[in-house]
Amino acid sequence: MSLFVRKSKKESVPDSYKFTSDFNSVIFIVVWNSLGFFFIEFIMAYLIKQVLNAPAAQLGLFFSFITLGGLISALFIGYLTDRFSKRILVMIGSFGRGLSYFGLYVSVITQSLIGMYISAFLLGLGAYFFWIPLDTIISEKSSKYHRSSAFGRRRFALGIGIVLGTVVGFTIFGLSNFLYPDNVFIIYSAIPIYGIANFYAGIQFSRKVDENKKFEYPEVENNQDTLIEQNLDSNNIETPSIHFFILGIILLFFAFFFSATNVGLYRPFIQPYVLENINSNAGLVAWFYLPTSVIGMLIAPKLGTMADKFNPYLTISLASFLGGIITFLIINSGNLWVFALLLIVDNTIMLTVGFVFVNFLSRVSIKHRGKMFSIITLFESIGMIIGPFLGGIIWDSISPQAPFIISIFVEWSLIPIFIIGIWILKPHIVESLENKEKK
Fold first, then answer.
1. How far apart are CA 190 and CA 155, in angstroms?
2. Residue with more model confidence, 140 or 144
3. Spatial contact of 207 and 87, defined as CB atoms under 8 Å apart
4. Of the candidates 82, 204, 250, 425, which lies 20 to 30 Å from 373 by C-alpha distance?
5. SS3 string of the chain?
């Protein structure tokens, strides 16, 4: 048996054995909700660093405020997700994000850095009201054997939304700069369009998704397995095992925190690094940078299907090792084509590892799935608040390359922590895949 793949037998499974009938309606909202993701990230980094000539630390603060809003909502959204209507929570999150886009539009027009920070905070606040209930619904509406594939479809929808939104955003931005170079109301008018799209997404989700419809396993044996697992989930773990379970949870939370801090340390500064060291043409860099963000998402369904079969230990080890090498090559590339190719590979690796993690985490508990996603998000949010601000300070005080170099060694050092945490938790997960493997 291959070390990298859990099973070698190739199967063709119909969608009815993977997802509920309304699963596509759940995924559909992501397209509309994600229209502004790339454009906002790019235009804000360009506006703060190149137009306003603000220090890198102030650019990092913008992304930290987004995460701070998410951190606040993550403190209680997991509890709400497990006890209240997830459909309503998704709608609230979608409407909240829509309103924050309008606040960001006003702040950009007035070039108010404080307004940008406040809008970023509100954007993050609405984000986890949206994502945590949505991820819980996706888990409930998909088979445990195809959970990575389900989240791969979510990523695919995210990629489609980003492509459409970016084309609209940069078309408006480019034409307006050419025809009406002094009219900031028109130049940045894509931002309120993204807000309207979020309102529409929330309304459509509320109308078309039945949160009470959950995936039912077609085989009698699987139904019996699920009932047993639900009973186990509702009871306490045996006392001798509880200490190992808690240790595994702590290790994973610790690893997710430092991993998120590490990502925040360098990801917000990739674009400024390219503009200052490879090519200073912001429009050209944008069109090179876009494919690196979306190509991995467009092949995400295939990556998710593959991740359902991957050995998590080897996947995490190999991906983290290669990720560090690719980061080193990225900052030493002097050509936009090489930069784009390396970033595509890096993003693809990150997506695949993410699918492996979400598959595992979604099966740790059924009863407390929302809280599990929320707590992980909480620790990641704290890391993403610290990371960008710390990265900005390192950029300003040491060198533009320093955040990237430090991130390589942090990424490698986290490999054993992730491996040990998963190894400890694996015997205690509720939705085990062992039964299917034996059959």
1. 23
2. 140
3. no
4. 204
5. CCCCECCCCCCCCCHHHCECCCHHHHHHHHHHHCCCHHHHHHHHHHHHHHHCCCCHHHHHHHHHHHHHHHHHHHHHHHHHHHHCCHHHHHHHHHHHHHHHHHHHHHHHHHCCHHHHHHHHHHHHHHHHHHHHHHHHHHHHCECHHHHHHHHHHHHHHHHHHHHHHHHHHHHHHHHHHHHCCCCHHHHCCHHHHHHHHHHHHHHHHHHHCCCCCCCCCCCHHHHHHHHHHHHHHHCCCCHHHHHHHHHHHHHHHHHHHHHHHHHHHHHHHHHHHHHHHCCCCHHHHHHHHHHHHHHHHHCHHHHHHHHCCECHHHHHHHHHHHHHHHHHHHHCCCCHHHHHHHHHHHHHHHHHHHHHHHHHHHCCCCCCHHHHHHHHHHHHHHHHHHHHHHHHHHHHHCCCCHHHHHHHHHHHHCHHHHHHHHHHHHHHCCCCCHHHHHC
Closest CA to 260 of 414, 143, 134: 414
pTM over 0.85: no
Residue 258: per-residue pLDDT: 86
* Half-sphere exposure at residue 332, Cβ-oriented, CA atoms within 13 angstroms: 7
pLDDT (0 to 100) of residue 240: 46
Q: What is the mean pLDDT of residues 90-101?
A: 91
In the numeric block, which tokens belong to residue 372? 């599990």
- Provide the pLDDT confidence category of residue 234 given band limits of 50, 70 and 90: very low
First-to-last alpha carbon distance for the chain, in angstroms, is 16
**What pLDDT score was predicted for residue 377?**
74
275-319: per-residue pLDDT in tens? 788 877 766 776 776 676 667 667 766 776 676 677 778 888 888
**pLDDT of 257 higher than 50:** yes
Query: At 223, is the pLDDT very low, low, confident or very high (cuts 50, 70, 90)?
Result: very low
Residue identified by tokens 């994600």 is: 34
- Measuring CA to CA, how many Å separate 33 from each of 26, 72, 87, 123, 287? 12, 21, 15, 12, 21
